[in-house]
Amino acid sequence: MLYLAQVHKNDFLDQLQLRLLAREEAENIWAIIPEEAFILLGKGNTLTENLLVLVKLSPTGDIERLEDATNWVLNLVKAYLTTGISPEFLQQEAERAEQWRQNLTLQNQDLARRSLELEARREQIQALEESLKREKNGVQKEGSGGS
Prior knowledge:
With 147 residues, this protein is of the alpha+beta class. 48% of the residues lie in helices and 29% in strands.
């Protein structure tokens, strides 16, 4: 699993550690890690303190890959922040999409109701037509039978 982490110095152990900040849940979907979670790097590491890194961990928690996150962050800035896409903008768009979905649902329900009403009216008209045909046939039989 891929994580965004920051390099910290563990003064007690006198070695560097990674503080996990966020975890990739799916492509382009990340979750902030609210609790403090650290991974020791060992003594021979030469990373700079406070450096942001991308770290891929195995299912057992071992570091599989570690790379500087500078290019990744710059790509995020280029992809999202230079086009005016902010979290507020995304929230507004999500709210607009939800309102649109609700409006479509209401329109669909209204159309379904109208369709049922039209079907009921059509059945009423057919029943009236049948009734009129029977009455007409009955009147014609009386007119021809009474002469």
